[in-house]
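Researcher: I'm preparing a figure for a lab meeting and need a structural model of a single chain. I don't have an experimental structure, so a prediction will have to do for now. The sequence is pasted below. Please return the structure as tokens so I can convert it later.
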Amino acid sequence: MEKGNRVAIYGRVSTGEQSVDMQVSELTDYAQNRGWLIVDRYLDCGVSGSKESRPALNRLMNDARQRKFDILLVWKIDRFGRSLKHLVNSLAELEEVGVAFVSLRDSLDLSSPAGRLMAQLLGAISEIERSLITERVRAGIRNGRSKGRRLGRPRLGGGSRQNFASTGKWCVSERHFGATWDFPWQRPPCPAFQNPLAPATSAASPSH
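Model: Understood. Here is the structure written out token by token.
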């Protein structure tokens, strides 16, 4: 088997009602017209392109790292992935292991100079996207602080570490039943706490 023309086909459809046959047929014809030898077909059926982890895609990337093929052929680039970050990272990994990426309908061939330029543009767009996301997060934090909002995780149950350190009891705010919870090893239990979900008990009958 001659190296350099071994091609792997990847196809994907989002729902089980769709068929991947059309993609496979067109890709097979294209590979044969180019004189490429198809070594395997990786097909994800009923899997969203927004998922980075897909059974066939995971197997494909593992085989690419082992250089079981030289070219990855897809029908359209969105069949391979819809997340720009995932797409850029995957293309970079394929380039690192020496596997060319070809998208039939997008006329994208990363083994050519024009295709490599397109990959660099995708990387630049991804970098801009990451910067914009970071800036939006920072702007949200600044806006929250300016309005006096407490950032970070809320304390469990509204309890106070200081109260626990001084009394051994976890004090809960009024919106949490207005009670002080005793720990199991403390006796007697706190009489102020009554489970609001427990059935109401009738008054004790007088002793005879």
